[in-house]
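Project standup — Tuesday

K.O.: blocked on the structure for the chain from last sprint. Re-posting the sequence here as requested.
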Amino acid sequence: MPKRFVVPASDFSELPRFPGDLELAEALTTAAQHLHDTVTPHSTMRAAVGLAVRLLPGAEHAGISVMERGSGRRTVAWTDELVRTAEGSGDGDAGGPSPYWDHLWHAPVVHLTDSQTEGGGVSLAGLGLRSALALRLRADKRRLTVLTVYARKPDVFDDAATRVGRLFTAHVSLALDSVTVREQLTEAMRTRDLIGQATGILMERLNIDAAEAFDSLVRASQRENVKLRDLARRIVDANNAT
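H.V.: unblocked you, prediction finished:
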């Protein structure tokens, strides 16, 4: 289950609220710096929802959710509990007005007008939300990652808000890609070090060279149907316990 975060928009008080054209480039640059300073995908999304409320004209609340075909929608970051309620329980149920969100499989942006907030699994209007703007962050054949901003007034998100939102989500997407690669490289380094330790232990125990020790580790992994890193961790942990 992904970690979930609530982040107050006040964390980004140095940004102009709903910047005009003259401030937009500077505000987006500052936002990009915040995003690229994050260290995990979860912290990137946490920063993104807070920044969205500062940057997008009319936005009062924001959330990021993940949609999987046939598995509903779960919320992974939000600015407040109202967003969590609006987007569903977060336990894999399809929250919010999913018929409209489904359009994001084919289009990068979906607007919800005042009349549409009454529909779906959770009534946005019943929560006092009269406008929503959903912006696609990531997409593949089976999964969508979506940033949605909400407002209590109807017809808030005009072309200007959409333009700012699309510029902002481009930065969020790049930051997510970057931090995901860094996280994967870090994990790969940790796995390599762990396998190296396990190989060294086998060399010492069995009086064999590095190639033979690694081959022995691979064969044991296949025989026991255990991932190589998990088997290596088991060997290292057992050795440390003795």
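K.O.: great, moving the ticket to review. The chain has two domains: 5-180, 184-241. The longest helix spans residues 159-206.
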